[in-house]
Amino acid sequence: MTTIVNVHEAKTHFSKLLEQAHRGQEIIVAKAGKPYARLLPLANAAPQRQPGRLAGRVDDAFFEPLPEEEIRAWEG
C-alpha cells in the first residue's frame, strides 16, 4: 500500500514515516500536490561470496563432460 504525504507532513512526522517505510510500506512525498520523492526500505545486502565454501562437497563426477543427449537438451 502506498501512502502520499505532503512535504510539511513529512517533515513533521519523518520518524514515523521512516518506521513505516522500514516495515515495507511505500511512502510518496509530494510537493505542491505532485509526487516528488519516494521512501522505501533498503534492500537486504546480498551475502558475500566465499571461495572454497563447497570444498569437499563436489566430487570429481561434477567435472566430467555431459552426455551428448543432455547437451542437446540444454542447447535446444
Automatic annotation (TrEMBL):
SUPFAM superfamilies (UniProt xref): YefM-like
UniProt xrefs under Pfam families: PhdYeFM_antitox (PF02604)
InterPro entries assigned: Antitoxin_Phd/YefM, YefM-like_sf
Biological function: Antitoxin component of a type II toxin-antitoxin (TA) system.
Similarity section: Belongs to the phD/YefM antitoxin family.
Name of the protein in its database record: Antitoxin
Organism listed in the record: Halochromatium glycolicum
